Amino acid sequence: MRQTSQPGSTGLLAYGAVTAAYWAFMLTDGALRMLVLLHFHTLGFSAVQLAYLFLLYEVAGVVTNLFAGWLAARFGLASTLYAGLVLQGAALVALAQLDPAWSLALSVGYVMAVQGLSGVAKDLAKMSSKSAVKLLAPQSQSGLFGWTAVLTGSKNAVKGLGFLLGAGLLAGVGFQLAVYSMAGVLAVILLAVLISAGRIGLSGPRAGGLPGADKTKALGDVLAKDPNISWLSLARVFLFGARDVWFVVGIPIYFYAVLSDGSAQGDRAAFFMIGGFMALWIIFYGFVQARAPKLLKAAERSPEALVGDARRLVAALILLPASLALSSLGLPAGPAFTALLVVGLLAFGALFAVNSSLHSYLILAFSKSERVTLDVGFYYSANAAGRLLGTLLSGLSYQAGGLAACLGTAALMLVLAWLATRRLQPAGAPL
Questions:
Q1: Dist. CA 49–CA 85, nearest whole Å
Q2: Residue range 342-371, pLDDT digits in tens
Q3: Is 426 part of a structural domain of the chain?
Q4: d(Cα 64, Cα 381) in Å, to the nearest integer?
Q5: Taking a C-beta distance cutoff of 8 angstroms, is the pair 381, 65 a contact?
Q6: In this structure, what are the phi and psi dihedrals at residue 368, rounded to the nearest 5 degrees?
Q7: What gap in Å lies between CA 391 and CA 251, rounded to an integer?
Q8: CB under 8 Å to 36, separation ≥6 — which residues?
Q9: Which of 138, 364, 383, 390 sits at a 20 to 30 Å CA gap from 149?
Q10: Cα–Cα distance for residue pair 425/302, rounded to 1 Å
Q11: What is the distance between the alpha carbons of residues 228 and 276, in angstroms, rounded to a whole number?
């Protein structure tokens, strides 16, 4: 592992390029999710059908993450970053070809396939960006946690803007033109990064940039070797499942039901308000993520204390969806419960953000430099599995019991995440 305490100028430039590329990707990813959800809801899709649209996206994420680390090790980390951006552009262009005259089955199948391609793209870009931090950042606890938190927090703030952008574009210019506009933005960013890659050290032989290909890595190396990484990955499954079980379908559809009167004008107003809330939640979540090292005083504390925080934070998080689920049973859908829901979900976002940022640091801290792409890929495969589980349960639970069922399921999944974090030990400690 490198022991440098301060990054060189080349490393900073490469980190900046990785961050810019990841921002561009997440802007379009957030916008695409909101576009697909709201567009197809207005076409009459049920909660379960809406969940189906995102299932292949999440399945692709599980598989991609598992093998993306190996691909990055074999072909170079910059190559997988570029591949993610190219595939996302292709997915956007393909989605614009959707024909309203197609049958329901064909439309669902086509959008699922395009979303699957987008899922591959997302997780190639995510694995590449997160692994790059391990290799480019200073290796002190505070330095690595700080760089990880900045990348992760800023990414989520940008994704939040994407939610707002997607809802605004759908209301303003329609589905097809909105998708083409995002593809154009992504193409410009990709071209800029490619042109500057050699000069800033993102790829090529310059010291301080990202590593090139290593043909010695075997496919069997994708599985985690460290029990800490296995337990952290299992905790990640249930942590992100607990978020998406209400976030993907339940909350947008609930808000649509209470905000829209069914008219075209009512729909447009509802789109802006739903997109605005989702954007606010993600931006707030990203802001807290970026400040997590300061909130936890990471520079002054031991690895043992941070692992203890990971356990306590998940335990505290359980209370919020459990309380909201009980409140939803006692209060009718309307202004009072909606206001309580907004406040409760913002509190959930703050706690979840610190949880997520700490987990993102711990996976890098537990990983060896020579295995970082493999371990990060395995970990984010678990992350995608959690999103897949949450997405499926979001549609099923909302259809079965409305928002209360979504929130109650989230609380149960957080209990499972807490049980997994209890098995974590500080790096180097006996297990």
A1: 28
A2: 999 999 999 999 998 888 888 877 776 666
A3: no
A4: 7
A5: yes
A6: -85, 150
A7: 12
A8: 53, 54, 95, 111, 115
A9: 390
A10: 12
A11: 38
Between these two residues, 31 and 56, which has the higher pLDDT value?
Answer: 31
Q: Which amino acid would we find at residue 153?
A: G
Do 387 and 223 form a contact (C-beta atoms < 8 A)? no
**Is the model more confident about 143 or about 209?**
143
- Residue 196: which domain range? 9-421
Within a domain: residue 237?
yes
User: In the prediction, which pLDDT does 225 show?
Assistant: 64
Give the pLDDT mean for 144-153: 68
Buried b (16+ CB within 10 A) or exposed e, 213-240: eeeebeeebbebebebbbbbbbbbbbbb
What is the Cβ-side half-sphere exposure of residue 30, based on CA atoms within 13 angstroms?
26
User: Using an 8 Å Cβ cutoff, are 117 and 59 in contact?
Assistant: no
Highest mean pLDDT among 34-38, 63-67, 325-329: 325-329
Q: Which CA distances in Å does 80 have to 59, 244, 416?
A: 19, 26, 33
d(CA 35, CA 29): 10
Angle at 430 between CA 426 and CA 431, to 5 degrees: 85
pLDDT digits (tens, 9 = 90+) for 46-68: 777 777 777 777 777 777 777 76
Which pair of structure tokens corresponds to residue 169?
Answer: 């574009």
Distance CA 249, CA 51 (A): 7
Q: What's the token pair of residue 282?
A: 């993600």
Q: Domain of 407: which CATH number?
A: 1.20.1250.20
Q: How many other C-beta atoms lie within 10 A of the C-beta of residue 250?
A: 27
Distance CA 240, CA 253 (A): 20
Domain count, the chain: 1
Q: Residue 13 domain-assigned?
A: yes
Assess if residue 427 is contained within a domain: no
